Amino acid sequence: KAQAVATRTYAVFASRKPKDPAFDMVGTVEDQVFEGIDNVAEVFRDAAGETSGLVLLYRGEPARTVFHSTCGGRTETAANAWGKDVPYLRSLVCEDCSGSPAYRWEYRMSGAEGRKVARAMGVPAGEDLRISVTELNSTGRAARVKVMSGGVARETHAAEFRKAAGYSRVRSLWMTIEPAGGGWLVTGRGYGHGVGMCQFGANGMARRGAGF
User: Fold this and answer.
1) CB neighbours (10 Å) of residue 19?
2) Cα–Cα distance for residue pair 182/190, rounded to 1 Å
């Protein structure tokens, strides 16, 4: 039910501030992943029906009710993630998402993959490529990543590195990057941007008996 209310509110919020004249949202991680309703389980249909018409408001307006899979133990602030402060999207300790398969993760990036990522970030990478996290934000997540090769260096927002590497590989910005075996070992916590509702955390709260 918490997810149903968050999803509905997000849609209402987006419809009031559409990204494009032709549509309000896209059906990807840029907004909300949507693959049609044919395979939606009955439990989700029931949750939507039982919360029909309910949305979250902040000062009388629909809130920006973003969510993500797993925060890894602490949610992220909107200011850290997107550069714009939102009063109700603060960093909170989450003790209920430890059962997520993405609570801890690692990705072994090969040298070839690293060079492909570097090129996507505008660095003509060779065998001397170096990749490193150069700055952390207030919640301990990577804020800046530097790529260096052949005397060319570029430091950019860590989110650009994650996008170039692939969201399913580098699951969050709560990560470290270390050289390993001709490539890099990226280890991290959580899955997604970390802002707003942690879905595995909400599931853990529900299992403890919390209401939506």
Assistant:
1) 12
2) 26
Confidence of residue 34 (pLDDT cuts 50, 70, 90): confident
Place of tokens 């991680």: 29
Q: What is the mean pLDDT of residues 72-82?
A: 97
User: Which residue, chain included where needed, has tokens 């918490």?
Assistant: 2
What b/e readout covers 180-193, taking b as 16+ CB neighbours within 10 angstroms?
Answer: eeebbebebbbbbb
Q: What pTM was computed for the model? A: 0.91
Any residues with CB less than 8 A from the CB of 178 and at least 6 apart, and which? 184, 185, 187
Of 203, 198, 196, 178, nearest to 188 by C-alpha is 178
Integer Cα distance of 142 and 140 in angstroms? 7
CA quadruple 163, 22, 15, 200: dihedral sign = negative
pLDDT digits (tens, 9 = 90+) for 103-139: 999 999 999 999 999 999 999 999 999 999 999 999 9
Q: Nearest Cα to 169, choosing from 98, 82, 100, 108? A: 108
